[in-house]
């Protein structure tokens, strides 16, 4: 009996000792102690991955023009910008300032050459004598039927005429050409069908050759920026203008004009230009993109913007109360052509005096226009 008690006491002692080490009173079965894992060899720091190319910081070219932002011409500039960004992968873009925000159209040569604008729309007729070869486009009654033909003809003439190339290289570089669509005589009070009807009228015109033509037919030419024309017409300072349908619409002239003669008189040459120093600073890739979307394709982009107004705006004008589109007979047209020929001759003589072959330039250009009109 004593022996059994001793065994019992010994068991209790062992149990208490075990409880101190392995929790004899715990209902959970203790897990066997895990064998300590061999410390892992520290991993070699991974080589940092090549950082992705930073977002392109594009070259931003400031563009100036005098058309309002609602104009199809402004929309053409936006399309030009889209194409430039696409061609360059975002490396270049345009910042477009319409409506003379950077300066007046009549100051565009200085704005471009002085770097106020990197690119701009330069109306050559605003600068008599500065672009003498290009002024062949501004001769009256030479048959430019629309803007796309006119702009393409200017580009073709430029490509084959070194003297014309020189006149667009004065602190600038040509990107492409544009042209007004056909311009015609519109008036506020007097219907014009024949040269005799022009006598005594104060008409806004652009370009020295166009001015000479209006003088030849008895009118008084007035030079004036397009944004100023509405007030001058509404107040009677002007009796009318020689302008195209896009300009009529852009500057709301259909509100103050009542008659539009259905005969092309003249077209006005324009250049899309870039500051020469800006051009030289561009990468070859950006230069190539500007050349690709400029040139002949650019003439059609900007030309289509001008021509897009011809049908819709003329139809809208015709539908307004008291408005009339005045048809001209073949005989009346022939009269205008005969009166234009002395202006052609004067231009040829002037060019000859400057060392050019004026007649050759005129004949070449008329041939280009005729070919592009087919």
Write up this protein.
The chain is an alpha/beta fold and 374 residues long. It has two domains: 59-180 and 267-307, 3-Layer(aba) Sandwich (D-Maltodextrin-Binding Protein, domain 2); 184-266 and 310-373, Bacterial extracellular solute-binding protein, family 7 (D-Maltodextrin-Binding Protein, domain 2, 3-Layer(aba) Sandwich), CATH 3.40.190.170. It is built from 14 helices and eleven strands. Strands 7-6-8-5-9-11 form a six-stranded mixed sheet. It starts with a helix and ends with a helix. Residues 1-55 have low confidence and may be disordered.
Radius of gyration over all CA atoms, rounded: 39 Å
> What distance lies between the first and last C-alpha atoms, to the nearest angstrom?
136 Å
Give the low-confidence spans: 1-55
Q: Architecture of the largest domain, CATH level 2?
A: 3-Layer(aba) Sandwich
Count of the domains = 2
Mean pLDDT: 89
* Backbone structural class: alpha/beta
Spatial order of strands in the largest sheet = 7-6-8-5-9-11
Helix content: 40-55%
Brief summary:
With 374 residues, the chain is of the alpha/beta class. It contains 14 helices and eleven strands.
Topology (SSEs and partners):
Elements lengths: L1 H21 L36 E6 L7 H17 L3 E6 L10 H6 L5 E5 L23 H14 L1 H6 L4 E8 L4 E4 L14 E3 L3 H9 L3 E3 L6 H6 L5 E4 L1 H6 L8 E3 L7 E7 H6 L2 H10 L1 H13 L2 H10 L4 E3 L3 H24 L4 H16 L1
Parallel strand pairs: 1-2, 1-3, 6-7, 6-8, 9-11
Antiparallel strand pairs: 3-10, 4-10, 5-8, 5-9
């Amino acid at each position: 009996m004593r022996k059994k008690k001793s065994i019992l006491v010994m068991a209790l002692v062992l149990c208490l000792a075990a409880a101190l080490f392995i929790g004899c009173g715990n209902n959970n079965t203790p897990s066997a102690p895990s064998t300590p894992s061999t410390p892992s060899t520290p991993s070699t720091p991974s080589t940092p991955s090549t950082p992705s190319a930073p977002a392109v910081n594009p070259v931003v070219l400031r563009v100036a023009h005098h058309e309002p932002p609602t104009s199809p011409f402004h929309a053409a500039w936006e399309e030009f910008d889209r194409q430039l960004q696409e061609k360059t992968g975002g490396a270049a873009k345009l910042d477009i300032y319409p409506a003379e925000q950077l300066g007046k159209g009549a100051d565009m040569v200085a704005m471009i050459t002085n770097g106020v604008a990197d690119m701009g729309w330069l109306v050559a007729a605003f600068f008599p004598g500065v672009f003498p070869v290009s002024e062949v486009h501004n001769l009256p009654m030479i048959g430019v039927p629309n803007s796309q033909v006119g702009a393409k003809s200017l580009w073709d003439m430029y490509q084959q005429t070194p003297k014309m190339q020189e006149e667009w290289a004065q602190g600038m570089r040509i990107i492409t050409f544009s042209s007004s669509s056909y311009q015609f005589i519109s008036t506020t009070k007097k219907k014009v069908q024949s040269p005799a009807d022009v006598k005594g009228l104060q008409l806004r015109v652009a370009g020295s050759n166009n001015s000479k033509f209006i003088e030849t037919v008895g009118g008084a030419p007035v030079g004036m920026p397009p944004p100023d024309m509405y007030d001058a017409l509404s107040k009677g300072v002007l009796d009318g203008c020689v302008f195209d349908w896009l300009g009529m619409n852009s500057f709301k002239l259909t509100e103050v004009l009542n008659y539009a003669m259905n005969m092309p008189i003249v077209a006005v040459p324009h250049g899309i230009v870039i500051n020469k120093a800006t051009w030289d600073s561009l990468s070859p890739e950006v230069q190539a993109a500007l050349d690709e979307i400029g040139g002949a394709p650019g003439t059609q982009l900007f030309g289509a913007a001008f021509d897009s107004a011809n049908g819709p705006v003329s139809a809208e004008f015709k539908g307004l109360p008291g408005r009339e589109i005045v048809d001209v007979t073949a005989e009346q047209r022939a009269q205008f052509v005969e009166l234009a020929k002395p202006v052609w001759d004067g231009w040829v003589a002037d060019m000859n005096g400057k060392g050019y072959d004026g007649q050759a330039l005129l004949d070449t250009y008329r041939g280009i226009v005729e070919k592009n009109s087919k």
